[in-house]
């Protein structure tokens, strides 16, 4: 669930298209497609006079970004607070309006307890409750350690113990990132950015893919090859 964004010029940097689910570039074909829709609808940049007329330095712009692969659009809203010059401003928020952002999900081969905690974190992330998301992603890592039989007096030591259970040092470091995110979110009240939370969620997803999904896929391929051999042997006694 990588969040798309919009830069100061109304352009959308490359990202994950919610229509075709591929990482690709986006275009806004012409300025007429981007429309300021609040506090007053207009296609042109709101002048200083317009900003003073409606008593608002903060304006909402709608941008339909066109996927470079599937050519479908993603509708984004960009909240901008203009400076006193009326020309430059700060992007306060970018909202993906349609298709709606869907919470992340882990593969069904991942234990249900881990999937449920991760899914709750993903719902919090989608709702932009990033401290809650950090807490739940940390809880998912703790449950993952439990499932893998890790031992220790605290989560840090349990994550470190995963090395003794065949988990690579790189994955261990990634899981520590989730622990840091949760600890600082819970105990220190630090709210991380959307990109930082999304990165940690991605690290967890990559870790469980290696630990659970890939072994399951390999087992399925072994079973398929065995079934093919058995069927061939039965037909050629």
Outline the structure in words.
The protein is of the alpha+beta class and 237 residues long. The protein is 45% helix and 17% strand. It has helices spanning 48-53, 112-126, 130-147, 155-161, 169-187, 194-235; strands at 15-16, 23-24, 26-27, 35-38, 58-67, 73-82, 89-98. The strands form two sheets. Strands 3, 4, 5, 6 and 7 form a five-stranded antiparallel sheet that branches. The chain has a two-stranded antiparallel sheet with strand order 1-2. A hairpin with a 6-residue loop joins strand 1 and strand 2 (23-24). The chain starts with 14 loop residues before the first strand and ends with a helix. The model has no long low-confidence stretch (mean pLDDT 85).
Describe the protein's topology.
Elements: E1 15-16, E2 23-24, E3 26-27, E4 35-38, H1 48-53, E5 58-67, E6 73-82, E7 89-98, H2 112-126, H3 130-147, H4 155-161, H5 169-187, H6 194-235
Antiparallel strand pairs: 1-2, 3-5, 4-5, 5-6, 6-7
Helix pairs in contact: 2-3, 3-5, 3-6, 4-5, 5-6
Measured between the Cα atoms of the first and last residue, the distance is 52 Å
Written as H for each helix and E for each strand, in order along the chain, the element string is EEEEHEEEHHHHH
How much helix, percentage-wise, in residues?
Answer: 40-55%
Q: Count the strands?
A: 7
The average pLDDT value, as a whole number, equals 85
**Count of helical stretches:** 6
């Amino acid at each position: 669930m990588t969040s798309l964004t919009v830069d100061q010029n109304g352009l959308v940097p490359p990202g994950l298209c919610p229509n075709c689910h591929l990482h690709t570039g986006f275009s806004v074909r012409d300025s007429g497609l981007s429309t300021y829709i609040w506090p007053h609808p207009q296609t042109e940049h709101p002048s200083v006079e317009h900003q003073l007329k409606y008593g608002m330095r903060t304006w909402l712009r709608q941008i339909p970004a066109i996927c470079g692969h599937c050519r479908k659009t993603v509708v984004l809203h960009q909240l901008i607070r203009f400076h006193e010059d009326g020309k430059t401003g700060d992007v306060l928020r970018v909202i993906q309006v349609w298709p709606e952002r869907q919470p992340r999900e882990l593969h069904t081969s991942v234990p249900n307890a881990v999937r449920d905690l991760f899914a709750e974190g993903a719902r919090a992330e989608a709702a932009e409750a990033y401290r809650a998301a950090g807490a739940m992603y940390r809880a998912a890592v703790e449950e993952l350690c439990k499932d893998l039989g890790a031992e220790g007096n605290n989560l840090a030591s349990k994550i470190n113990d995963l090395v003794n259970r065949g988990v690579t040092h790189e994955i261990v470091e990634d899981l520590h990132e989730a622990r840091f995110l949760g600890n600082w979110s819970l105990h220190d009240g630090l709210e991380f950015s959307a990109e930082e939370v999304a990165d940690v969620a991605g690290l967890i997803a990559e870790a469980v893919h290696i630990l659970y999904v890939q072994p399951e896929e390999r087992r399925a391929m072994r079973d398929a090859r065995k079934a093919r051999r058995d069927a061939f042997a039965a037909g050629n006694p």
